[in-house]
């Protein structure tokens, strides 16, 4: 029988938690960049998007472009804060990912497949940011565990 070191489980759990949070930060940055590009495309050229008649949440495509552009820019800024393991960034990241889900649901008829993909990615981001406990990742990711 092998004895386990009391801190081994804690270190492995911390590494897993930090890895999931870094993945969430990277995914939020990618989602933000893609949101910015989608917003620019909607603002600049309306011919790229599908137009559905009689949609309940009908909104001007240029307006949706600005919504996606702003959400994307905020998502990129928040993801930078996530790389510093900031608690405010985790809360803001969950909120922004939730808003991205809502915006993509409401703009579903304009670009249906991409909206569903972004909803799934944002759901994963929320899961990744909610998995980590505060004591699992108290230091910025650039520092090794145990160094202050």
Question: Could you characterize what this model shows?
Answer:
The chain is mostly helical and 148 residues long. It contains four helices and no strands. The radius of gyration is 19 Å and the shape is elongated. The model has no long low-confidence stretch (mean pLDDT 79).
Q: What is the gyration radius calculated from CA atoms?
A: 19 Å
Q: Would you report the number of β strands?
A: 0
Run of helices and strands: HHHH
Could you describe the largest sheet, including whether it forms a barrel?
Answer: none
The fraction of residues in strands falls at under 5%
Bin the helical content.
55-70%
Q: Can you tell me the residue ranges where pLDDT is under 50 for at least 5 consecutive residues?
A: none
Class based on secondary structure composition and strand pairing:
mainly alpha
Number of helices: 4
CA-CA gap between termini: 36 Å
Any idea what the shape is? elongated
Quote the average pLDDT. 79
Quick rundown:
With 148 residues, this protein is mainly alpha-helical. Helices cover 67% and strands 0% of the residues. α1 packs antiparallel against α2, α1 packs antiparallel against α4 and α3 runs antiparallel to α4.
Task: Please describe the structure with a list of short key phrases separated by commas or semicolons.
148 residues, mainly alpha, 0% strand
């Amino acid at each position: 029988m092998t004895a386990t070191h009391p801190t081994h489980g804690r270190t492995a759990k911390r590494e897993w938690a930090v890895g999931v949070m870094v993945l969430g930060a990277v995914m939020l940055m990618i989602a933000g960049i893609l949101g910015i590009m989608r917003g620019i495309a909607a603002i600049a050229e309306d011919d790229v998007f599908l137009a559905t008649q009689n949609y309940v949440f009908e909104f001007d495509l240029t307006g949706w472009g600005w919504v996606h552009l702003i959400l994307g820019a905020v998502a990129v800024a928040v993801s930078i804060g996530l790389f510093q393991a900031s608690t405010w960034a985790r809360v803001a990241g969950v909120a922004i990912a939730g808003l991205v889900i809502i915006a993509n649901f409401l703009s579903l008829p304009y670009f249906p497949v991409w909206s569903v993909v972004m909803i799934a990615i944002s759901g994963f981001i929320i899961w990744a940011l909610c998995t980590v406990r505060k004591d699992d990742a108290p230091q910025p990711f650039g520092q090794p565990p145990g160094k202050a």
